[in-house]
Specification:
37% helix, 938 residues, eleven-stranded mixed beta sheet
Length: 938
């Protein structure tokens, strides 16, 4: 049967409460339910009406997927518009397919392989709920880009196109059993030798995810938001969202290629109920029994070896008893399963994932065989009496435990609404056990690559963490890196004789940030493909390594809101006009027009982000000025940088009328909301928070804190002359939002110095500061005593402004003595600038001047009691910045003199200004911050 056997060699997925397969497995072992209750605000924001939400039968529960809007468009060669128009199900399946190939050590770039794709997806609700409800796209519902981005027909073929895969590419749709049916077809393709490697799986994301449902007695959904398979209280299922993908190879090929094998598929079969049941949507015991028996026969495995069955297990009053009767009858006719065969259903943990349900059950079962651990079945207390469980050979365990005896075989069921049933029989794979080699006769090569410098740095960081934690076999690690990874544009290589040398080389790379492919060593100059032939890998095996870094950002088209008949702002401040939505209103159109003129882009939609459109803080100055002049708005620059879309700006203008034409000065802007204590970031020398808005974009770390950024209090500039004054003022502002510690503080450049002083002041008053994060902040030693007269600062400002892209007007500056800050402002003016634009730039320059003066007079009077994380720009200060510092005083290690704890320094690409500029630099900063968040939950 080896020729017909299929090995599961790779897997990837994203599930409720779990971003990776490892997280998913940990949750299963710990008995975690990832079904959660949604707050009232969440269900209302999702579009649920007030009347429905108030219904006593309404259940606000589900298995939602964090970051469904996130995607690395650049990595997969998509434009932002294409990514926004593509169903998030397609985007997630593409991402997981790539990650699964890497987990398998079979990268898309491997030559000579026919790789097939067998994919399943759920009904496209993103198209219905978002795209078709957005005026910009609703009239183009049948247009080529919308259809390609959203139709199920293109789910599999998009993966083949983006990853350059040339095997069969087939979308499979059999309702709830779709993804396991995809596995069935993939196995058949491998067995017919039309495919060498097969990707199979499914995805299901229902938009909106947090809408809840109204319970109906006798229906398929649970009355209280809990799924209880096989339990006496079982009364329905709960919807889950997620994706699962497996990579399959013929067992003989997998053994020859020394792949890591999770489990072996010995037999899989599919049937349909036909018409011998009470209704189309009802389960059919005869059809289920036939699929189970056919799979057992195809496997060639005695049914008595099967010790675990992952049931379809929806937790419905009708479905569970029917399934168990069919299962018991089929196994009895085949000779019976193993004594006390355990029964489980993952739907209790993550909900019913519809088209992805079958592959999620398969992944769980393969992991059970691989780890020889059976996770507990949650939400089970007393068996449903209609199951007659005591009369079957099956038992249900509520404790996670290693198997008493080696678990050699298991099975999975997945049954689709309408009657398509699939059953799969798996066998554990027993590889020859060997001890890890502690010593090797010579150094082995270690090569890793990535698409960008930032990704290469993150790949090194992940690899270092993996080696430190798992201590893999040295030769296995070298072999997998050489043969099981793509050869991408940016590479790094080194030689090592043991794992300590590997860790040291990775740590050195992270501190220096230099790649060395192309060095004098012949082995390093050689191509990655050639390297594998120069070393003894005869006993090496592939191992599972960290996934390639992806820098995901939100790509999302929001639906237009239903609008009322008035032509003015409503009570909630939403722009409304008769007969149309906000994006058709005059104010929104005028804001869009201003965006398009300044950005040089046409057809901007109301919900496209200014930052995503390529805007920066300097251009924002001109836009804010025109908004002020043409729309008589009082929006300030920092507030604009927290609004970012034409719709948000228009709605803010509408609310302005409700405040009598003026608004309170708001110094704190949310960059990222969430639970827990915020990380408060102080503004840099220019006083704005735009850099932080880019930093938080696309952040997907589950436990990362919310971020709030403070802007410079220009209206109080006369009362906050020093760094200590600013620190005291910001502390007052923060306490309005968070009255008590522990506090999390940080800042970029000048903002980092202020954050440091705030931490010292807070500690002096007995308050706890648990985190201090500095972005390229030079120590007070570098600034204290620096020249701070008006002519001194006026002489420095032109070069500093040039560094951020704001050069002087040569014609105006020619022959003019620059001795005051006002001289600088006047020499910046460009043709077409209004008085408001000049005034806005005057504010920026004045803030910068104020902060330069404050720096020159500051030196801390005590140390910070704690640790500091410093992110340093690896290119160092620009010449203009260097001239503003005391000679030889820019060493970041000097911060160690001002703290009692540990100073941890991270290198980020770019210089003092460009580290917050290019996309790759921003992505690298996010990566570093995420590593800090992941390490310290800060």
């Amino acid at each position: 049967m080896t020729d017909q056997a299929v090995a599961i060699v790779g897997m990837a997925g994203k599930f409720p409460g779990a971003d990776t397969v490892d997280d998913f497995w940990a949750n299963l072992k710990d008995g975690v339910s990832s079904i959660r209750s949604f707050s009232r605000s969440e269900v209302l924001a999702a579009g649920t009406s007030e009347s429905v939400a108030a219904d006593p039968s309404f259940v606000a529960s589900g298995g939602d997927l964090d970051g469904a809007e996130l995607f690395d468009a650049a990595f997969f060669r998509m434009t932002p518009r294409e990514a926004e128009l593509t169903d998030p199900q397609h985007r997630l399946f593409l991402t997981c397919a790539y990650q699964a190939l890497l987990d398998a050590g079979n990268p898309p770039g491997a030559s000579g392989r026919q790789v097939g794709v067998f994919a399943s997806g759920s009904y496209n609700t993103y198209l219905l709920a978002n795209i078709l409800r957005n005026k910009e796209f609703s009239e183009a519902a049948l247009s080529h880009p919308v259809i390609i981005g959203n139709d199920k027909d293109f789910l599999a073929s998009r993966v083949s196109y983006k990853l350059n895969l040339t095997g069969p590419s087939i979308t499979v749709q059999t309702a709830c059993s779709s993804s396991l049916a995809s596995v069935h077809l993939a196995c058949a393709s491998l067995q017919r030798a039309e495919t060498d490697v097969a990707i199979a799986g499914g995805v299901s994301i229902t938009i909106p995810q947090k809408s809840g449902y109204v319970y109906q007695e006798g229906g398929v959904f649970s009355s209280d938001g809990a799924c209880r398979p096989f339990d006496k209280k079982a009364d329905g299922m709960v919807k889950g969202n997620g994706c699962g993908v497996v990579v399959l190879k013929r067992l003989s090929d997998a053994v020859k290629d020394r792949d890591r094998i999770y489990a072996v598929i010995r037999g899989v079969a599919t049937s349909n109920d036909g018409s011998t049941k009470i209704g189309f949507a009802a389960p059919g015991p005869d059809g289920q029994r036939r699929a189970i028996k056919s799979a057992l026969v195809a496997s060639g495995i005695p049914s008595s070896r099967i010790g675990y069955v992952e049931a379809h297990g929806t937790g419905t009053a009708l479905g569970d008893p029917v399934e168990l009767r069919a299962l018991a009858k089929a196994y009895k006719e085949a000779g019976g399963p193993q004594l006390n065969c355990e029964l489980g259903s993952v739907k209790a943990n993550v909900g019913h994932l519809d088209a992805a349900a079958g592959v999620v059950g398969l992944i769980k079962t393969a992991l059970i065989l691989y780890h020889q651990i059976v996770p507990q079945q949650i939400n089970f207390d007393e068996p449903n009496p209609h199951l007659a469980l005591d009369k079957t050979p099956f038992v249900i365990s509520t404790k996670t435990r290693p198997t008493d005896l080696p678990l050699t075989a298991a099975a999975v069921s997945s049954f689709g609404l309408g009657g398509t049933n699939t059953h799969c029989v798996l066998e554990a794979f027993s590889a020859d056990q060997r001890e890890k080699r502690r010593e090797v006769p010579y150094a082995y090569p270690f090569v890793f690559s990535a698409q960008s410098p930032a990704a290469l740095t993150e790949a090194a960081r992940r690899l270092l963490g993996y080696v430190a934690l798992h201590q893999p076999d040295l030769v296995d690690l070298s072999y997998t890196l050489l043969t099981g990874r793509d050869s991408l544009e940016h590479r790094h290589a080194f030689l090592a004789c043991n794992l300590k040398e590997v860790e040291a080389a990775l740590a050195e790379f992270l501190s220096e940030g230099q790649s060395n492919i192309g060095s004098s060593s012949h082995s390093l100059r050689a191509s990655i493909a050639d390297l594998s032939g120069e070393f003894d890998f005869s006993s090496a095996r592939k191992i599972s390594l960290p996934a390639h870094p992806l820098f995901e950002e939100p790509f999302w088209i929001e639906p237009d809101k239903k609008l009322g008949p008035s032509s003015h702002a409503s009570a909630d401040g939403e722009i409304r006009r008769a007969g149309g939505d906000a994006d058709g209103g005059e104010i929104v159109d005028r804001v869009i027009g201003i965006f398009e003129r300044h950005l040089g882009i046409s057809h901007i939609s109301p919900d496209q982000s200014y930052y995503r459109l390529g805007g920066d803080s300097l251009l924002a100055v001109q836009i804010v000025s025109e908004l002020r002049d043409s729309l008589q708005t009082d929006i300030r620059l920092d507030e604009f940088l927290s609004l970012l879309t034409a719709r948000a700006i228009a709605n803010r203008i509408a609310r302005q009328g409700d405040h009598g034409g003026s608004r309170d000065q708001t110094e704190i802007q949310w960059i990222r909301k969430g639970g827990g204590n915020p990380l408060f970031l102080m503004p840099p020398g220019g006083g704005t928070t735009f850099c932080y808005a880019q930093l938080a974009s696309g952040d997907s770390i589950p436990h990362a804190p919310p971020i709030a950024a403070l802007s410079f209090p220009q209206h109080l500039a006369g009362n906050v002359r020093s760094v200590r004054d600013l620190a005291a003022h910001y502390i007052q502002q923060i306490r309005k939002m968070q009255p008590q510690g522990p506090y999390r503080l940080g800042g970029y450049s000048f903002g980092g110095v202020v954050a440091f002083e705030m931490a010292v002041q807070m500690q002096r008053k007995g308050e706890k500061v648990e985190s201090l994060l500095l972005f390229d902040s030079f120590t007070p030693d570098a600034h204290v005593g620096a020249p701070n007269t008006e002519p001194d600062i006026a002489a420095m400002l032109p070069d500093l402004l040039q560094d951020i892209g704001l050069s002087m007007n040569i014609d105006l500056a020619r022959g003019r003595e620059i001795s005051t800050v006002e001289d600088v402002v006047l020499c910046m003016k460009r043709p077409g600038w209004s008085d408001s634009t000049v005034q806005e730039y005057r504010r920026l320059v004045e803030i910068w001047r104020h902060n330069l003066e404050a720096l020159s007079g500051y030196y801390p009077d005590s140390q910070f009691i704690g640790d500091v994380n410093l992110i340093r720009a690896e290119e160092g200060p620009t010449p203009a910045i260097a001239r503003s510092l005391r000679e030889g005083s820019d060493s970041p290690e000097t911060w160690g003199n001002h703290i009692t704890g540990r100073l941890t320094i991270f290198n980020a690409p770019g210089n003092h200004f460009t580290m917050f500029g290019a996309r790759d630099n921003i992505a690298a900063l996010r990566t570093i911050c995420n590593s800090i968040f992941g390490r310290s939950s800060v």
